[in-house]
Amino acid sequence: LRHRVQVISGLEHLNADPGNDGAGDHARANGTFLTGVRVKKTAGSDIYAGISLDQIAAKHVGKATRFTSLELSTDPHRKSGGCDSGYSCAYESNLAWRTATSPLSPESNPRLVFERLFGAGAHGQRGDSLVQRRVQQRSILDFVMEDAKAVQKDLTHRDKAKMDEYLTGLREIEQRIVTAEGFTDIPDPAMPTPDGIPSAYDEYIRLMFQMLALAFETDSTRVSTLLLAHDGSNRTFPEIAIAEGHHSLSHHRDDKDMIQKVAQIDRFYADRFAEFLTALESKQDSDGNTILHNSMIVYGCGNSDGNRHTHANLPVVLAGNGGGAFHPGRHLATKATPMCNLYLNMLDEMGVPALDRFGDSTGRLSDV
């Protein structure tokens, strides 16, 4: 796979730095990763970030597929409350943001992902169940819309604004259903429906990556995010004989044994990612190239040093050739460059009308 990936050093997300907000680097790192903006410090409902890279792309290419975008996670998801030094859990649990105030909650159950994509039941019977599912979704959506409109007149000005945002989200869901109904040729993979979330974490990640590979292979969507673990996760890794939590180990204080264990965890995740890329490289796209050749996949995180909480020189891999636009198979060294500069390059290749700026971008990378 060496010829399909490039390591890009020197990229940074300085809007995740503390500034005047103090502690909360993990929430900021997660909330900034695909938005490039400085998220509002709040543990309440008044969250504020920015539209994410994936959702800008999805608005441009989403109508060509059954699903505008697909949001996935292999991490427990919390929608409310505080998770990191006064920051809402919404920042830690979500990568995708439809608007500055509306994150898109990821699905963490592989079975539900599969049934959403292809329908429930055995191979050969899923098409009918998918049609029934959409009818039920429409019925529920109609009920919720009517109920929301009924209570709207009694709301305060602030609550009306939130309700308007909520209704906008419902209308977008309705539009997604309409879009999906326009596709009558529903793929039906020759594999059993997943049972649910595997007990072994490595199998869990493999299965979720398999769901994502199937979504790309069947052209069910062309835009997706997968949160493997939120920034600050303290998961243990019995699969590789590591009993200490990831977050605890990342505050290693230059202890060689702890640093080695963090490296083992990094390798654990990278191996699963490589398996996913191998699956995409093995599948041919409609133009004869591999799916990986025609893809742009960012793999990385918003903290470069968990011990010091730094957001410069981030660990970033860009996989895929972008259909021939990019030149993988190397290390691209940049110096103190906003991560959002890379994002502008990616949006250009998605055919998004040229943006002057995204997040804290200062331009585009000249040689990707």
Describe the structure.
With 368 residues, the chain is α/β, with parallel strands linked by helices. The protein has two domains: 2-115 and 191-349, Alkaline Phosphatase, subunit A, CATH 3.40.720; 120-185. It is 39% helix and 12% strand. The chain has helices spanning 25-32, 53-61, 89-93, 110-118, 126-152, 157-181, 201-217, 246-250, 256-281, 339-349; strands at residues 5-12, 70-73, 82-84, 87-88, 97-99, 102-103, 224-227, 297-300, 316-319, 330-338. A four-stranded mixed β-sheet has the order 8-9-1-10. Strands 2-7 form a two-stranded parallel ribbon. It has a two-stranded antiparallel sheet with strand order 3-4. A hairpin with a 2-residue loop joins strand 3 and strand 4 (87-88).
Question: Would you summarize the structure shown here?
Answer:
With 368 residues, the chain is an alpha/beta fold. The chain contains ten helices and ten strands.
